[in-house]
Amino acid sequence: MGKGRLEAFSDGVLAIIITIMVLELKVPHGADLAALRPLIPVFLSYVLSFIYIGIYWNNHHHLWQAVRHVNGRILWANLHLLFWLSLIPFVTGWMGENHVSAWPIALYGTVLLFCAIAYYILTVALINHHGKDSTLAIAIGRDIKGKISLVFYAIAIPLSFVNSWIAFAFYVLVAIMWLIPDRRIEKTLMS
């Protein structure tokens, strides 16, 4: 089956996720800049999550450039990814409202970990469907950045209970790692 509906549906879900996150930003009660101070943790959480959704959207888009068609297994793997991504607004709000406390930071990292695992499952399903010699399989390669991300999340989650700001820094570090779009698929498609 074609991939067009899956791409359109995924783009729509990601747009809704971002919309839900921005709707959680509450207008301050006050007309001076001091009224914004209590919202700084909420805003920082929003920015980080917006970047993460953008990273997933960007990489998801690149992934589909190397894919010709999908099957039922791929549809479910994609829904699995979208499920975990859909939890980001909730954990973002909890983390921001509680000023980067241990449990919200740990749950945020857990959701990020499961998003990364779901993305990995999706890539495996796509590679299995298209073959080990496919453009996608060649482009993904050993996926070192993806594996490093999983390790950083796994470290940051328990670290949340020792120092939540250091755990938060790990999440920022992973986002910075992925901010530069993954060019593996583009390079492979151009060769």
Short description:
This protein has 191 residues and is an all-alpha fold. The chain has nine helices and no strands.
How does this structure look, described?
The model has no long low-confidence stretch (mean pLDDT 91). This protein has one domain (4-190). It is globular. The protein has 191 residues and is mainly alpha-helical. It contains nine helices and no strands. Helix content is 76%, strand content 0%.
Characteristic key phrases:
single chain; globular; 76% helix; 191 residues; 0% strand
Tell me about the biggest sheet? none
> How many β-strand stretches?
0
Total helix count?
A: 9
Distance between the termini: 26 Å
Order of helices and strands: HHHHHHHHH
Note the overall shape. globular
Question: What structural category characterises the helix and strand content?
Answer: mainly alpha
Mean of all residue-level pLDDT scores: 91
Strand content: under 5%
Low-confidence stretches: none
Radius of gyration: 18 Å
Number of structural units classed as domains: 1
Q: Work out the helicity level.
A: over 70%
